[in-house]
């Protein structure tokens, strides 16, 4: 019975630790999402006022940034 209790306590402690880690990750993802939304809004405004060539350059740069962000999140 004692071993089962110790195991249960260890499992509970690990779950608490994992919950904190997940909360931190969730907070980070929320901040990243808000920043990305702001960038999208600003980029949209920029593209509305830019010429076709500038639009293409902006799209290419944004795609590169998006790829870098995805690689950063995946790691």
TrEMBL record:
Residue ranges crossing the lipid bilayer per the database entry: 56-74
PROSITE patterns: T_SNARE (PS50192)
Domain of life: Eukaryota
Keywords: Membrane, Transmembrane, Transmembrane helix
Entries under InterPro entries matching the protein: T_SNARE_dom
Domain T-SNARE coiled-coil homology, first and last residues per copy: 1-46
Name assigned to this protein: t-SNARE coiled-coil homology domain-containing protein
Organism from which the protein derives: Trypanosoma cruzi (strain CL Brener)
Lineage: Eukaryota, Discoba, Euglenozoa, Kinetoplastea, Metakinetoplastina
């Amino acid at each position: 019975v004692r071993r089962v209790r110790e195991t249960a306590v260890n499992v509970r402690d690990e779950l608490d630790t994992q919950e904190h880690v997940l909360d931190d990750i969730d907070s980070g993802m929320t901040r990243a999402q808000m920043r990305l939304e702001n960038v999208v809004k600003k980029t949209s405004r920029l593209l509305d006022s830019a010429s076709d060539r500038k639009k293409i350059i902006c799209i290419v740069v944004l795609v590169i940034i998006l790829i870098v962000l995805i690689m950063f999140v995946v790691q």
